[in-house]
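The freezer alarm interrupted the setup, so I double-checked each line after restarting. Inputs confirmed:
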Amino acid sequence: AQSVTQLGSHVSVSEGALVLLRCNYSSSVPPYLFWYVQYPNQGLQLLLKYTTGATLVKGINGFEAEFKKSETSFHLTKPSAHMSDAAEYFCVVSDRNNDMRFGAGTRLTVKP
Amino acid sequence: GAVVSQHPSRVICKSGTSVKIECRSLDFQATTMFWYRQFPKQSLMLMATSNEGSKATYEQGVEKDKFLINHASLTLSTLTVTSAHPEDSSFYICSARDGRDNQPQHFGDGTRLSIL
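Predicted 3D structure, all chains:
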């Protein structure tokens, strides 16, 4: 069984500040891990994914995430927040059968 | 990149009407498509998984006769909300995955369904 916990349903940062969205997972098999972003009234857009190989994954819009097996974490970071980053972010864990489990989501607010 | 087209983006209709939502993969063959429902300020809830040419697999608590899913080709899946009522109002999102390993799901832009 797999599950995802996103710590903090709402994160607020100032423009230019570091963005850190936390995600911990539980999986009985080596997981695939994803971060998706959702803008209001839109579907989900893939930011980045980890399947195998390098544990530091770079995605679109300057985001990156690091898979840490020992901590069962896959936190999402961006060095400098931009106003356009304000959105809902979902951490997702999947097994090889593509059974995806979504986190509850974290709403990112960026203050000017 | 992979594109999934979902149509319509918004539907407003009277109670008792049936509504069909289409989900198309535009540049890849989607062996599997997924239908999600999202309530305001909540995460996505998987409703069903459909594989091309076979019956959909519904999640527990999802009414098969209320939410009819057809996946007739490798690029098209449809969700029909039958005899819709106000409680069916929601944001519905489809996703598609091609058959290759390690591929993520690609999501449509969602359909906002409002039943009056």
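Quick read of the result. DSSP finds no helices and eleven strands in chain B.
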